[in-house]
Amino acid sequence: QQEFSKELLSVEEISESLSRIIGLITTTNPNCTIIFTVSPVRHLKDGFVENTRSKAHLISAIHKTLEIHTACFYFPSYELMMDELRDYRFYNEDMLHPNPVAVNYIWDKFQQVWFTDEARAFSKRIDAVQKSLEHKPFNPQSKSHQDFLR
C-alpha cells in the first residue's frame, strides 16, 4: 500500500474518466447498453466520512456523465441498500457487506428493470441448476446422482 498514493478525485475528474471509458466501449461495441451503479459495500478503511465523500463524488460524477451520454443508465444498488435495506439484518456479520437476502433483493430489482421476460425465465433456470449443483448428495456414487450430473 505504500507504493500507492490516495486522493479524492473531483467530480469533474471522475466524469471525464467515465466519458473516456464510454468512448472506448462504444467504439468497440456501438450497440451496447452501459449501466452504471455504485457498490453498496462500505469501504471503511479510511473511515465513515471518507467513504461517504468518495461515494458522493462518484454518484455525482455518474449523474453528470449521464447528462451528456443519454444512452447510458444508472441502477441505484447503493441507494437500495442504504434506503430500502438500511436495517442491519440485511448485512453480513462484518456490518459492511450485504447479506444474501440483500444481494438477492437488489438482483431482483435489477432484473425487473433490465431483463426481458425471457431473460428472467432463463435466469431462474440458471439459479435452479446452481442450487442443485450446490446440493450435497447423500450418496455421491449412486446411479441417480450420477444421472443427475449428466
Structure commentary:
The protein is mainly α. It has a domain of 83 residues. The longest helix has 21 residues. It is extended and about 60 Å long. The N and C termini lie far apart (47 Å).
Short précis:
By secondary structure, the protein is mainly alpha-helical.
Overall spatial form? extended
The average pLDDT is 92
Helix and strand string, N-terminal first? HEHEHHHH
Radius of gyration: 20 Å
Which regions contain 5 or more consecutive residues with pLDDT less than 50? Answer: none
Could you outline the blueprint of secondary structure elements for this entry?
Blueprint (H helix, E strand, L loop, with lengths): L10 H18 L5 E3 L11 H21 L3 E3 L2 H8 L15 H15 L2 H18 L8 H7 L1
Parallel strand pairs: 1-2
Helix pairs in contact: 1-2
Keywords:
150 residues; mainly alpha; two-stranded parallel sheet; 6 helices
